[in-house]
Amino acid sequence: xxxxxxxxxxxxxxxxxxxxxxxxxxxxxxxxxxxxxxxxxxxxxxxxxxxxxxxxxxxxxxxxxxxxxxxxxxxxxxxxxxxxxxxxxxxxxxxxxxxxxxxxxxxxxxxxxxxxxxxxxxxxxxxxxxxxxxxxxxxxxxxxxxxxxxxxxxxxxxxxxxxxxxxxxxxxxxxxxxxxxxxxxxxxxxxxxxxxxxxxxxxxxxxxxxxxxxxxxxxxxxxxxxxxxxxxxxxxxxxxxxxxxxxxxxxxxxxxxxxxxxxxxxxxxxxxxxxxxxxxxxxxxxxxxxxxxxxxxxxxxxxxxxxxxxxxxxxxxxxxxxxxxxxxxxxxxxxxxxxxxxxxxxxxxxxxxxxxxxxxxxxxxxxxxxxxxxxxxxxxxxxxxxxxxxxxxxxxxxxxxxxxxxxxxxxxxxxxxxxxxxxxxxxxxxxxxxxxxxxxxxxxxxxxxxxxxxxxxxxxxxxxxxxxxxxxxxxxxxxxxxxxxxxxxxxxxxxxxxxxxxxxxxxxxxxxxxxxxxxxxxxxxxxxxxxxxxxxxxxxxxxxxxxxxxxxxxxxxxxxxxxxxxxxxxxxxxxxxxxxxxxxxxxxxxxxxxxxxxxxxxxxxxxxxxxxxxxxxxxxxxxxxxxxxxxxxxxxx
Amino acid sequence: xxxxxxxxxxxxxxxxxxxxxxxxxxxxxxxxxxxxxxxxxxxxxxxxxxxxxxxxxxxxxxxxxxxxxxxxxxxxxxxxxxxxxxxxxxxxxxxxxxxxxxxxxxxxxxxxxxxxxxxxxxxxxxxxxxxxxxxxxxxxxxxxxxxxxxxxxxxxxxxxxxxxxxxxxxxxxxxxxxxxxxxxxxxxxxxxxxxxxxxxxxxxxxxxxxxxxxxxxxxxxxxxxxxxxxxxxxxxxxxxxxxxxxxxxxxxxxxxxxxxxxxxxxxxxxxxxxxxxxxxxxxxxxxxxxxxxxxxxxxxxxxxxxxxxxxxxxxxxxxxxxxxxxxxxxxxxxxxxxxxxxxxxxxxxxxxxxxxxxxxxxxxxxxxxxxxxxxxxxxxxxxxxxxxxxxxxxxxxxxxxxxxxxxxxxxxxxxxxxxxxxxxxxxxxxxxxxxxxxxxxxxxxxxxxxxxxxxxxxxxxxxxxxxxxxxxxxxxxxxxxxxxxxxxxxxxxxxxxxxxxxxxxxxxxxxxxxxxxxxxxxxxxxxxxxxxxxxxxxxxxxxxxxxxxxxxxxxxxxxxxxxxxxxxxxxxxxxxxxxxxxxxxxxxxxxxxxxxxxxxxxxxxxxxxxxxxxxxxxxxxxxxxxxxxxxxxxxxxxxx
Lengths: 637, 640
Description:
The complex is a heterodimer. Chain A is of the alpha/beta class. In chain A, strands 1, 2, 3, 4, 6, 7, 8 and 9 form an 8-stranded mixed beta sheet that branches. An 8-stranded mixed beta sheet of chain A has the order 11-18-16-17-15-12-13-14, with helices on both faces. A two-stranded antiparallel ribbon of chain A has the order 5-10. Chain A is globular and about 90 Å long. The relative contact order of chain A is 0.08. In chain B, 42% of the residues lie in helices and 14% in strands. Chain B has an 8-stranded mixed beta sheet, sandwiched between helices. A 7-stranded mixed beta sheet of chain B has the order 3-2-1-4-7-6-8, sandwiched between helices. A two-stranded antiparallel sheet of chain B has the order 5-9. In chain B, helix 19 packs across helix 21 (519-533) and helix 20 (492-500) packs across helix 21. Chain B is globular and about 90 Å long. The chains are: A alpha/beta, B alpha/beta.
């Protein structure tokens, strides 16, 4: 389709893509791990139908596994230093193609920032092939004034650089050759937009080349519709789905009213193999961000389930029972699971084990039962699970494991502690139907790795703070385990309480390390930053590394309480600040820790806003003042 | 002040047979006299009282026959309830018993209680009084109160105030308020113990495992057979209740299982708790995803559809078709041309299930869907022809982006009329709860900035209108509970207060009072409050899909916005709200925040003139710069 900005008065010859014409694809890949995510070979396989030559440029490194994934679907692989973003990747591809370019009628420059084809590429190629043009893009972006990156001048109307098609008359032209020869260096994302993506279209239309866009902007607003209107673009037939819609900061998408889930639904509706998307997102998006962007939560009905009993999952329950007097209570819950399941009980001493066995003997078993006395109570349920049940997870052959433990609330326990326990058990094993409903999710969603209740927040100050002091140690341990999933800045997405459903395969990374009870240390090590607390937060990140995502699950009762509370609190918290919630968050984060709001805290805030770097000096000053005050008081006494 | 041991404290004795009991029941809100929970309480108490006296405080009573409930009523007019009213009433009673010819002795036991509890259930108070009669004590409580945290959240709309005693029984010398030592409010059990009196409780703090069982131990109390349900834990500032994990929805479930009449409780709470706080405290939100139990719908339904966006009419009617067939459809639109098109559309869409349809032409007013509801469809609301009215609309939202528009429509339509089964489930809520007034989706917070400011500029106007309509339900402070989006299911009886008023289209235009220029917005925000005044509560509903979208978004946003302050949300909110309006982080804004937090008294003196000066400055600044610009332009012109 033509847009006003693409209309040129030109005497250049324009042609359609010739029947039997030849097309080359230059496809740029960037992957932090050097791997190649599965959606890439899928896209290339489907592009093969339209491209005679596929040249893949890898920015950065390429692992052997990555190479093995690319080789069957490409003709040539170039691995280059990761500099200059995808734009310099295109240039490397063009350079590599060199004089061979003359053999082709069209070049496609595309990168790996989209999933596709959603539906099929065929209609787009059919449409564009029959259109006389010099270059075309999949989607475009309207002119923005002032330029959002430079704050001056304007960002021209442009075809987006993730997909550009260029016909022979253009790529053999002097203008094209000099454009790429003189391409400025690009050291930031902003450079890539300012020096290439934003100007390419304007430059070449000025030269008199005729451009077209396959899917013009859907609205009359200045918005990046490839990201924000992903759902509508798919409905309009666009075969590419930008990945960005699923890793942008949730408050940003939220304030614009974008619901990522609906774009995914639209892709699924068009038959895209969704596991490719899930695997990629699980591996490359912060789990809590993904949880919000893709609304990965289920309110599981308490009275209806579609669990397929004909093809039951192999389920094992691993229960760490420290308080053996709770054995019956735990089993009452566990037995809400549908069908058979094996039970592994871990317990730290033989006396308790004996009493637990006696309880188990009174009940009707639903599968094999194994009561294990673990060597040590170090690490409590975590230690017993990671050390004592290694074989069950790695070699047990189970489809799903349910990890639980005896959570005791004595008579004088606070309401909060009671609520936490109820929160866990109700949202894991509320009713027969509820438990079946959760297993049904595992039956239907092969990339679902973990399911557990959302973070407890009633009676606890977890909202905003659930890392506590554990993040630095977490980063280290994650690195040791080889987890490259990005780590949330916000509270982590984690099974606080350490009870969850998981696919054993999703937990495999956690078992990469041959943990011992000594690693956990004794009760004194059970503190923030200690291994137990770090590993409590690890499962979703470990699962992500293997391409499994997490869903939070809640029963209707808990959901009602939690949602009304969160809404009320957010409403109250926002009452003194202008703009949207996104702006309010940014505002508060610029101010930093408000402390108690005294003169010292405001001095730091002011320093952070106006004199970055002055904060340490100020802190020393206030420390000295405090010391003086103490000494003065001491002297006065 | 500390009290020494009273020298003259005589050892306590059990009550002898034939002893007299006086019960004083305080009504802190006389509107509640009509509530069945008060009548139930008074009837149950009277069975055990030789004399029952009501204290009525806070408002003037009108025309109720109190003889039916009590022996006497002491009215304090509009003076709000204070604890000293008990002593004032008891002094009167003492004089009365000293008086000649009354034939009444001084009571042997006085029970001070009031409207702070629901019940009783089970065997009533018989076992309580019988059990306590044998106890040799000077004073006893129904529920022991060892401790009570401060409940003062005045800026948030929940000020600390005197509340009627939950249940304090005094015997012997303590019957006479002159023996109380503290000037005029009833003694606490702890001070009595310090002075050497013996006390006990039917439900002790130790049994319940909470220092303040009435507030912190509702479910446990009921599980142990407590015949009453204290109301306090449903009525306080929600973040305070959350901090202590006092979860009203769960307590209410236990109450239901214990035999309490939950409809009665909801009706009372609707009238005394700000609606959004109540929605939170009771978790009045339902995900309607399960199978419905009801069969074919037998109620009478009316749909009021305001349609000015003809393009959206088809999609709207498709959703309306999910209602059980046989409803009456009233379409309002702004001109005859649209009306003709809509009639044509309706004649094509006879399969969507309406029994009859009617298109009404209304003036294009600022009142939009609200004036169409309250003026053009007044007959529908007041006619007693319908059990439920479903209000929907299709109107252009040209100021919003396409993605926000589509989110809005999907949110409203899905959460009210996703499918026939879903619509049936909404109707079933009304069948289950006779006191349910309105049902609508929770306030949107994605794509719309409602959080923190859903009153808009309309709270003061809403308060004025509420007063005019004699609505005394407290208004929420930050945001109201309202069907933002203008679509809801309602029982016409719940809308009656607003519907009965004879509005005119002129009311919706600019009135002399600038702040009320958008009556429609005010009415939208008063729907729930007006229903609550009549004892109807509201519920919010969602599909499971929107539930997931909304909860994950809320959780993420809350996590981020609470990340720079510490403590519980109640502390974090308190700190920010005390700091007041933040501005945008300039030095002036920060100074203001600092002053309000640390020197509130100075800030009250300094900040208002500062704000006034700023207003003046901001008023003149653009003008001044315009003048400067023009001068400059003028000079440039000369130079050329």
